[in-house]
Design brief:
- It is a single chain.
- This protein is an alpha+beta fold.
- It contains 23 helices and 21 strands.
- Strands 3-2-1-8-7-4 form a 6-stranded antiparallel beta sheet, sandwiched between helices.
- Strand 17, helix 19 and strand 18 form a beta-alpha-beta unit.
- Helix 8 runs parallel beside helix 9.
- The longest helix is centred in the middle third of the chain and has 84 residues.
Length: 987
């Protein structure tokens, strides 16, 4: 057999297989010449026929079997009968899809009560008959619904009785339903008209008519009720009296007798009862409001309603009670202040060995406490001319005070006179120039002078003189009187101790002289006995004074213990608050992580299988989740500010970079709101300043965001310039050149009485503003605190309806203000890398931008196998989708122990993504276990966790983590981090 015969036999076998429906037979194409060409043409034909058959079968299965409309047969460019066959199948599928979908839309609309839609798609044959049948059904349903609705509206809403529904061309159920509706309307018309006739007769005073129409059910009940009402109308006056009894006797306030179109006795009786009930209701409710406010702790309310007689006496008694409670509360607050400060200063005096030390402490603590600006402490000493008062300590004396120790004799000047009299001396309305109070910026005349003698058991030990520009409050005077008594006991104890030491020294000296003067013992024995008696008497006096001091010290110790207990309670409350914020952050960030990641993936629509509206839905979900994340971060920032743990890292900052950031961030927002937006810097503003760039951006972001939010038309601007010396706030004067960042807008403005309160936490203009514009009111509060940490301040100028200007003042050089102690590993809530990071890391905060190794250049660089260890299936799913999209192989484990086992059995794992909060073995223990595994000491471990409180990052890094990211994590940042660490591991 020659080559041609074999070729024909193979061709015959292949054609026979095609005839029998087997498209798997192929001819060998390795033969040369005409047989090879025949084989190639045959094989191409069979492949094309197989492809067309497969696509046609798939479309038929989807449309006819699975009910998936819209399918199309996708075949590479073909011609001839294949093209006609493909086009025919696709045309059939398109026609069937459009017809069935249109029928489905109309049927769905009818099911939902929408009878306005019709089937309008082109159709033929049985589909055309179905189309016409459904359209006819819809038209008749619409006509029936309109007629029934009209009759129901006329009878039930407009009160036009006698209406009938007229529907043409209906039969069967529709005709029966129409007849039933008309029968119902006819019966209702007869019944209501009869009821109307009877009620009209009753309203006109005719009580002889009754309802005699046939009725059933609730209409029968109404008929019976109205007939009964007619019979019982004679008891109308008794019912009005009952209302009066309920209001006046039973205490049911607010009751009113409402009877329309009455006259005569009924009208007068109704008006009298209503007036009585109204007066009593207003009076009792006013009393209830005030007593309720008092029960809630509000003592500012009083009863102002007019009331005569006993109710007026009750009003006066309650008002007097509220005033008494208000005075008692104020007195208790003053008493607490008095005891607290007495205990605090007394505890400071304990342990002082000399009157000079006591005087210095008193002058340092007492004048500021009682709002005095000038004062002196005088100690009684024996001088050549008798007892003198010497000034041994002072507070705020003017520069012109005479040098040296000031001495005053008893009875000389007001100080000496107060000491001689032994009572407090208060002088008000001092003449100008009597006493000057000065500071670095100016001086003023004191208006009030108070002198308090320090007297113990009739003995003057010293005096305390204070001057102030304002009158001393009664509580301050009480404090000074009690304090001088307590101070006298302490000073007396110190003087007694000094005298005792002196007497002991004298006794010892006498003893030594006695040994040398034995001949004089007899002569001076009486003198010695007298001296010993004097010593015993003074010792007894000293013992009494010591007991008195111990008793007062015991009182002071009790007050100190009470203060310590209150401080412990505050510390516990602060701890509970921190723990609550940590738990809240974790519980909110964990579901937010998967929500934001999946919403972003849906919004990107990489597969192109979502509609534009679905993409918008995903974008809205992502935006709402981002807003919730910003709220969580604001609350955490506020907590850090209150706890004094917000970190500040000062470094040279380029002013142009900050302005570019503002322009890039807020220009799209301004364009969207159709506002003019300008960012500029004055020529004298300089090239930069030394500050924390991240915190500076945070403040500007809050200020510009508020300006754009509250401005509906006009412009918003950011201008940086060097502040003039005259406008620099007082705290920044002397700090060198100061830059002013001015954020101005033409928005709604802020009332003058709200300018300061808008900087408070959760404050945002008034309630109307909060409802109109939204927001939490945390931004300005955090911004002011951040500005203070940066060594600057924020001021506000605003006019309602004109606009506002927020000005951030910052010194160009690094501020010398106090900075909170920096935690060991920072408070970062973004990405941070340690351990495996290259040595280029500087002292700047370790962020994803500064501490990560250089990322690989190629877009697909660093693809490998990633192990995800997380007990939240939602996060595992979201992270897996991100990683697989980027080309990574993904292994998952739901706890630390399972992750360790999976890592041991898969040596190909290149990187681990680790959650921290897991049941069983948590992320910290799992990370330490990975570092202990042979050959895994340098394996990159990226922590992705919802723990975002201070010290969480340092604890994770100490356990061996390579990088730290907080949930919700940004997919791009996560992928960039993974590529970077995989690239570093490869090198």
């Amino acid at each position: 057999m020659d080559e041609t015969d074999r070729t024909l036999e193979q061709l015959l076998a292949g054609l026979t297989a095609v005839r029998d429906g087997n498209l798997d037979t192929r001819l060998p194409e390795d033969a040369g010449g005409l047989p090879g060409k025949i084989a190639a043409v045959y094989n191409g034909m069979v492949a094309q026929l197989s492809l067309v058959t497969t696509e046609v079968t798939r479309v038929a299965e989807e449309v006819g079997g699975q009910g998936l409309l819209g399918g199309q047969a996708r075949v590479p460019p073909v011609g001839g009968v294949w093209r006609q066959l493909t086009a025919g199948v696709n045309s059939m599928a398109d026609n069937l899809t459009s017809q069935v979908r249109n029928i489905s839309q109309v049927a769905t609309a009818v099911a939902r009560g929408d009878l306005t839609q019709k089937i309008r798609v082109d159709a033929r044959g049985e589909i055309l008959e179905l189309k016409e049948t459904i359209n006819t059904m819809v038209e008749r349903l619409s006509s029936f619904a309109e007629e029934v609705t009209r009759v129901a509206r006329e009878v039930g809403t407009e009160g036009n009785l006698g209406g009938q529904a007229t529907v043409h061309g209906v039969s069967g159920t529709w005709k029966d339903l129409t007849d039933n509706v008309n029968s119902m309307a006819n019966n209702l018309t007869n019944q209501v008209r009869n009821i109307a006739q009877v009620t009209t007769a009753v309203a006109q005073g005719d009580l002889t008519r009754k309802i005699d129409v046939d009725a059933r059910g609730e209409i029968l009940e109404l008929k019976t009720t109205i007939n009964t009402m007619v019979d019982q109308l004679g008891s109308f006056a008794a019912e009005v009296t009952r209302v009066a009894r309920e209001v006046g006797s039973e205490g049911r306030l607010g009751g009113q007798a409402e009877v329309a179109d009455v006259s005569g006795t009924w009208k007068r009786l109704t008006e009298n009862v209503n007036e009585l009930a109204g007066n009593l209701t207003r009076q009792v409710r006013a009393i209830a409001e005030v007593t309720g406010a008092v029960a809630r702790g509000d003592l500012t309310r009083t009863i102002a309603v007019d009331a005569p007689g006993e109710v007026g006496a009750l009003r006066d008694n309650i008002n007097a009670m509220v005033e008494s409670l208000r005075a008692t509360t104020r007195a208790n607050e003053e008493k607490d202040w008095l005891k607290t400060n007495l205990a605090r200063i007394s505890s400071g005096i304990q342990g002082r060995r000399s009157p000079a030390e006591v005087a210095e402490l008193v002058m340092r603590e007492v004048p500021p406490l009682v709002r005095a600006q000038c004062g002196s402490f005088f100690l009684a000493q024996e001088g050549p001319e008798g007892t003198e008062l010497s000034a041994i300590a002072s507070y705020g004396l003017p520069d012109g005070a005479p040098p040296g120790v000031r001495r005053v004799r008893m009875g000389q000047s007001l100080v000496g006179q107060a000491a001689a009299d032994g009572r407090m001396l208060l002088v008000e309305d001092l003449p100008p120039g009597y006493a000057r109070i000065s500071s670095g910026t100016g001086s003023a005349d004191a208006s009030v002078l108070i002198v308090l003698p320090i007297v113990v058991e009739g003995q003057v030990l010293g005096a305390l003189e204070l001057a102030s520009v304002h009158a001393f409050a009664p509580v301050h005077r009480d404090f000074l009187e009690q304090f001088t008594e307590l101070l006298g006991a302490n000073v007396a104890a110190q003087i007694a101790n000094a005298r005792t030491d002196e007497l002991l020294e004298r006794s010892q000296r006498l003893t030594s002289e006695l040994s040398a003067r034995q001949q004089e013992i007899q002569a001076r024995q009486r003198e010695l006995q007298d001296s010993n008696a004097e010593l015993k008497e003074k010792a007894a006096l000293l013992a009494d004074r010591n007991r008195d001091i111990e008793r007062k010290n015991l009182q002071i110790e009790q007050a100190r213990q009470e203060l310590e207990e209150r401080a412990q309670q505050l510390a516990r409350a602060s701890l509970y608050k921190s723990e609550f914020l940590a738990n809240m952050s974790h519980e909110l960030r964990t579901p937010l992580n998967s929500l934001l990641i999946l919403a972003q993936l849906l919004a990107q629509n990489a597969d192109g299988n979502l509609t534009e509206k679905q993409v918008d839905y995903a974008t809205v979900i992502h935006s709402a989740g981002s807003d919730l994340l910003q709220l969580i971060n604001d609350i955490l920032d506020l907590s850090k500010v209150e706890a004094g743990r917000m970190d500040v890292h000062r470094e040279p900052v380029s002013l142009q970079r900050v302005l570019d950031y503002a322009e890039a961030t807020f220009r799209p927002v301004a364009d969207e709101r159709k506002l003019d937006f300008t960012v500029s810097a004055a020529p004298r503003a300089g090239a930069g300043l030394v500050t924390d760039e991240g915190r500076l951006r945070q403040v500007l972001r809050n200020l510009l965001g508020n300006a754009l939010k509250f401005t509906e038309r006009g412009e918003v601007s950011l201008r940086v310039e060097q502040a003039a010396q005259a406008e620099v706030p007082l705290p920044l004067r002397g700090a060198g050149p100061v830059l002013a960042f001015r954020v101005a807008d033409t928005g709604i403005g802020i009332p003058a009485d709200r300018v300061e309160s808008v900087f408070g936490a959760f404050q945002q203009g008034d309630r109307g503003t909060a409802r109109a514009y939204g927001g939490t009111g945390l931004g300005l509060s955090i911004s002011r605190e951040v500005a203070r940490l940066l060594g600057g301040t924020i001021t506000l100028q605003s006019s309602v309806g004109v606009g506002s200007t927020f000005t951030l003042y910052l010194p160009e050089a690094a501020a010398r203000a106090e900075q909170p102690a920096r935690p060991a590993a920072g408070d970062a809530v973004g990405g941070t890398a340690v351990g495996g990071a290259p040595p280029e890391t500087t002292e700047a905060p370790a962020t994803a931008e500064t501490a990560l190794p250089p990322a690989a250049d190629a877009p697909g660089a660093g693809a490998g196998t990633v192990l995800v260890v997380d007990d939240d299936s939602r996060n595992v799913y979201a992270l897996t989708e991100i990683l697989k999209t980027a080309g990574h192989e993904v292994l998952t484990a739901d706890n630390g122990a399972a992750g360790i086992n999976l890592l041991a059995s898969h040596p190909e794992v290149d990187l681990v993504i680790m959650d921290l909060m897991m049941a069983g073995m948590d992320g910290y223990a799992a990370t330490r276990a990975i570092r202990a595994m042979p050959g895994r000491g340098s394996l990159p471990v990226v922590v992705v966790t919802a723990k975002a409180m201070p010290d969480d990052q340092s604890e994770a890094m100490a356990a061996g983590a390579s990088h730290y990211l907080t949930k919700p994590v940004d997919p791009d940042e996560l992928l960039a981090t993974i590529r970077t660490w995989l690239g570093t591991a490869d090198t």
